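queue> holo job accepted (copper (II) ion)
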Amino acid sequence: MFAGRTAFRRLLILATLADWGMRSGLALANDWGMGAANDKIPPNNIFTPVADPANQISSLAFFVLGVTGAIFLVVGGLLLYSIMRFRARADDQGREPAQIYGSTPIEFAWTTVPILIVFALILTTVRTIYDVQAAPKPDGAINVRVIGHQWWWEFQYPDFNITTANELHIPLSDPRNPTPTFLQLVSVDVAHSFWVPRLAGKTDLIPNKLNTMWIDPHQSGTFLGQCAEFCGTEHALMMFRVVVESRERWNRWIAAQREAATQDPSTMRGRQVFESNACINCHTIRGTIARGKFGPDLTHLMSRETIAAGVATNNLQHLKVWLKDPDDMKPGALMPAMNLGDQDVDALVAYLATLR
Ligand code: HEC
Ligand SMILES: [Cu+2]
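queue> job finished
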């Protein structure tokens, strides 16, 4: 018997490579607090969907597994039976068995039955694809633009003028009055792929091409996602999370994100360091002169649980390590080490800490 929940959990985790990849990538050296943070999130099992279209995809997968499993049992069973029943025996006379050719009914049966089975699989698959891709967009739908960057995610809410990074917040959807989130996906550099196994299938983000998908979540919680298309050095550390929350909480999150950045006179020095360095060419902080678009929007940096696309938990120590040399956390990251003195870094961190 398995030794309780942990063993069962490990088994579940092993059973889903996606989840294993997301966690083990971090389990290597210093996990920057992410191991403990992610342990609070249930395993990323593709067999436990909590949203449409992940539900449709998993029903289809179970149907196909059922049919192919049955075929496997029948074929494997017949094979085993023949191997046992007609194996070589001591009293064999060393002659070939009688050679029999052709039986029209049998030939006919094993041609038409597989054709019918394949046809049933095609029909159900096409139907599911159609249901997912042609789903109409209801009035209450939320619009989000997902922009892939090497190696982080930008999430824009065009209806609210909000931009955030790596943590997508969407409202829980009531099946009687659905408020799904419709995503438009593009990339500013190479091909990426947006994948949250428990919420929906994968959708690629391709430069100069607009792709779309939607998520209609039926359970609140935090769900781990991962870039699923090799996109360069830090592809494995291009993670994100989707926070599904009640409508009220989501409304409050939206309202907070719409605010301009906090102005705190006591951290003026940090703000000066920020505004007098190249930070402003790559980052936006609404309410300051910083309007860069190359890196994540920092206006509400501290409202995020993680930094650097799920590489580290977001706290002052980790921000300090990041500012000194991003490569220490995320080798190859496209933010340069800014070579600032300790005092400047401390002032900067104190300033960033006010960006709630
Ligand atoms: C050349 C462009 C560039 C410059 C200059 C730059 N950054 Fe960045 N920064 C980035 C990129 C790109 C990322 C995302 C890296 C990743 O996750 O792979 C990032 C990430 C960050 C993050 C983590 C944000 C998050 O939500 O993950 C912080 C904080 C940050 N930068 C602060 C600064 C500060 C402060 C400065 C100035 C001292 C600065 N950056 C200068 C490009 C830049
Ligand atoms: Cu990617």
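queue> The longest strand covers residues 142-149.
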